[in-house]
């Protein structure tokens, strides 16, 4: 090894271990970059023995040759203090929040504050054909603030199953696309508002304090308008495809001419959809399927809160709309549009336009700690089981908890899975409707809104 002295004769008389070159070479072996102080002092020797605590934050340097010149040693010594200052500034600078990690933490916080568990059952019942479908899509989309959004739907087909199957397979995809578009617009409006607020920040601090709640309410209203717009466009897109769907499985324009397309003009489906995001329930309904929120009103009681209103042809406002469109409602084994369809709104059914429309009615409801569960079901259940009984049965079944074997097996996959207690509640409601002589397909989705063990 070639020894080089960086100082005068007094520095050269120092011990072998305290020469600048030795210290620097030892640092090069232990750290990516050399960080040293003035040569020859006892404090420098102590610091080099302990090693600087910030060296792990320095970026790695290119490997140095073992035969470095004396000039390289001197330059390294002179740059030591600058490197120390840069590292110290880097350590004091706050780290930016990681995007994906921030979203994961937001999703975990939302799940802890507003739990969601679900289960479902769909059966043909006493009907010859099965035309109902259900869609369970937890976490199908992430809102602009990182909150997860959950999608659940019940679709009651008539005249065939291909429109309800289309809703099951595609509606959540269309909704995710529309929500992404609305999220971009919402984020731009929010950014512009924040910039305006920052520009006028110094005008009136007291006024800004008093108007803080109003600004938050306005943001919440704009958020809800974005969700309503996305759902409305989603229903229109699905309805446009439903008019082109054929029982053979094709979606073509012009419409398919295969032998199975003979009655495609009067094939359609109802749709009741619930989107859960943070502490709000967004329900869109088109047809006579129904969404009912079971809210605890006290010990042993569950108050039903309907979140949708059935679109029946004899409903006063729907009857007036049908008559204004030039149609009529005929009593034929119940009130029916043109004596054919027992509902006034549906997806598909292009031969019954303009009386039958596909525009959904949308409600936004704030969740409360007393909310027990949300029930989505087709008319095969609601025609046989009243709201009060359905809420009472579901609430009791959920309070009984998961079976012991199911709780021990518990799903361990990354995606949320149906909870046994929710599936048991849905199964019990289906059996209750069947026992009460329901002749239609029966489909039930139960969403538990409580945090249960």
From TrEMBL:
<feature type="region of interest" description="Disordered">
    <location>
        <begin position="1"/>
        <end position="98"/>
    </location>
</feature>
<feature type="region of interest" description="Disordered">
    <location>
        <begin position="403"/>
        <end position="422"/>
    </location>
</feature>
<protein>
    <recommendedName>
        <fullName>protein-serine/threonine phosphatase</fullName>
        <ecNumber>3.1.3.16</ecNumber>
    </recommendedName>
</protein>
<dbReference type="GO" id="GO:0004722">
    <property type="term" value="F:protein serine/threonine phosphatase activity"/>
</dbReference>
<feature type="compositionally biased region" description="Low complexity">
    <location>
        <begin position="1"/>
        <end position="18"/>
    </location>
</feature>
<dbReference type="GO" id="GO:0046872">
    <property type="term" value="F:metal ion binding"/>
</dbReference>
<feature type="compositionally biased region" description="Acidic residues">
    <location>
        <begin position="73"/>
        <end position="91"/>
    </location>
</feature>
<feature type="compositionally biased region" description="Low complexity">
    <location>
        <begin position="36"/>
        <end position="52"/>
    </location>
</feature>
<keyword id="KW-0479">Metal-binding</keyword>
<feature type="compositionally biased region" description="Low complexity">
    <location>
        <begin position="60"/>
        <end position="72"/>
    </location>
</feature>
<dbReference type="InterPro" id="IPR015655">
    <property type="entry name" value="PP2C"/>
</dbReference>
<keyword id="KW-0464">Manganese</keyword>
<feature type="compositionally biased region" description="Low complexity">
    <location>
        <begin position="197"/>
        <end position="209"/>
    </location>
</feature>
<dbReference type="GO" id="GO:1902531">
    <property type="term" value="P:regulation of intracellular signal transduction"/>
</dbReference>
<dbReference type="InterPro" id="IPR001932">
    <property type="entry name" value="PPM-type_phosphatase-like_dom"/>
</dbReference>
<feature type="domain" description="PPM-type phosphatase">
    <location>
        <begin position="117"/>
        <end position="449"/>
    </location>
</feature>
<dbReference type="InterPro" id="IPR000222">
    <property type="entry name" value="PP2C_BS"/>
</dbReference>
<dbReference type="Pfam" id="PF00481">
    <property type="entry name" value="PP2C"/>
</dbReference>
<keyword id="KW-0904">Protein phosphatase</keyword>
<dbReference type="InterPro" id="IPR036457">
    <property type="entry name" value="PPM-type-like_dom_sf"/>
</dbReference>
<feature type="region of interest" description="Disordered">
    <location>
        <begin position="197"/>
        <end position="226"/>
    </location>
</feature>
<keyword id="KW-0460">Magnesium</keyword>
<comment type="similarity">
    <text>Belongs to the PP2C family.</text>
</comment>
<keyword id="KW-0378">Hydrolase</keyword>
């Amino acid at each position: 090894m070639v020894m080089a002295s960086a100082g005068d004769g007094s520095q050269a008389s120092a011990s072998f271990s305290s020469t600048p070159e030795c210290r620097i070479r030892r640092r090069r072996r232990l750290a990516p970059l050399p960080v040293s102080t003035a040569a020859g002092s006892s404090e420098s020797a102590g610091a080099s023995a302990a090693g600087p605590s910030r060296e792990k934050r320095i970026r790695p340097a290119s490997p140095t040759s073992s035969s470095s010149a004396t000039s390289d040693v001197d330059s390294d010594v002179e740059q030591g203090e600058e490197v120390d200052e840069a590292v110290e500034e880097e350590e004091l600078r706050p780290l930016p929040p990681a995007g994906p990690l921030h979203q994961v933490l937001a999703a975990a916080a939302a799940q802890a504050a507003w739990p969601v568990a679900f289960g479902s059952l769909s059966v043909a019942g006493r009907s010859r054909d099965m035309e109902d479908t259900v869609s369970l899509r937890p976490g199908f989309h992430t809102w602009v603030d990182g909150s997860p959004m959950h999608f659940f739907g019940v679709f009651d087909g008539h005249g065939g199953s291909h429109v309800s199957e289309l809703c099951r397979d595609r509606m959540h995809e269309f909704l995710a696309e529309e929500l992404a578009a609305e999220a971009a617009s919402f984020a731009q409006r929010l950014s512009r508002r924040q910039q305006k607020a920052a520009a006028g920040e110094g005008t009136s601090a007291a006024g800004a304090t008093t108007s803080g709640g109003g600004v938050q309410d306005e943001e919440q209203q704009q958020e809800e308008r974005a969700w309503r717009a996305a759902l409305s466009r989603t229903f229109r897109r699905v309805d446009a495809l439903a008019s082109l769907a054929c029982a053979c499985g094709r979606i073509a324009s012009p419409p398919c001419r295969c032998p199975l397309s003979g009655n495609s003009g009067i094939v359609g489906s109802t749709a009741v959809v619930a989107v859960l995001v943070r502490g709000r329930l967004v329900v869109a309904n088109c047809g006579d399927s129904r969404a009912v929120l079971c809210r605890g009103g006290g010990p042993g009681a569950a108050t039903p809160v309907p979140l949708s209103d059935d679109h029946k042809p004899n409903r006063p406002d729907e009857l007036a709309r049908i008559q204004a469109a030039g149609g009529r409602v005929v009593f034929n084994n119940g009130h029916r549009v043109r004596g054919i369809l027992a509902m006034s709104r549906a997806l598909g059914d292009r031969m019954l336009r303009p009386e039958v429309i596909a525009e959904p009615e949308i409600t936004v409801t704030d969740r409360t700690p007393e909310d027990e569960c949300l029930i989505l079901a087709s008319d095969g259940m609601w025609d046989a089981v009243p709201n009060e009984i359905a809420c009472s049965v579901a609430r009791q079944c959920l309070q009984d908890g998961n079976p012991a074997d199911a709780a021990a097996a518990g799903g361990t996959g990354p995606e949320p899975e149906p909870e046994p207690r929710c599936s048991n509640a849905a199964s019990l409601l289906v059996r209750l409707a069947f026992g009460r002589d329901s002749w239609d397909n029966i489909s039930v989705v139960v969403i538990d809104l409580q945090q249960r063990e």
